[in-house]
From TrEMBL:
Record-level GO cellular component terms: large ribosomal subunit
Family membership noted in the UniProt record: Belongs to the universal ribosomal protein uL30 family.
UniProt-recorded name of the protein: Large ribosomal subunit protein uL30
GO molecular function: structural constituent of ribosome
Assembly and interaction partners: Part of the 50S ribosomal subunit.
This protein's UniProt keywords: Ribonucleoprotein, Ribosomal protein
Keyword Ribonucleoprotein included in the entry's annotation: yes
A matching Pfam family: Ribosomal_L30
Superkingdom of the source species: Bacteria
Gene it is expressed from: rpmD
GO terms classed as biological process: translation
SUPFAM superfamilies noted in UniProt: Ribosomal protein L30p/L7e (SSF55129)
Length: 60
């Protein structure tokens, strides 16, 4: 199964509380921090509201 490498490229400070919670739930702490997440509908659904804050790469 493929995975997604999610990198925080913009700060979550001064964003909507829901967006800050999503960033925290994904395990992203600081700018340029990255995490690997499974590539499924739940993960992609969580990434959609914060798409302007992150960079997503597919890792095989």
């Amino acid at each position: 199964m493929a995975q997604l490498k999610v990198t925080l490229i913009h700060s979550a400070a001064h964003r909507l509380p829901k967006q800050r919670k999503i960033v925290e739930a994904l395990g992203l702490k600081r700018i340029n921090s990255s995490v690997l997440q499974p590539d499924n509908e739940a993960t992609r659904g969580a990434l959609f509201p914060i798409a302007h804050l992150i960079k997503v790469e597919e890792v095989k």
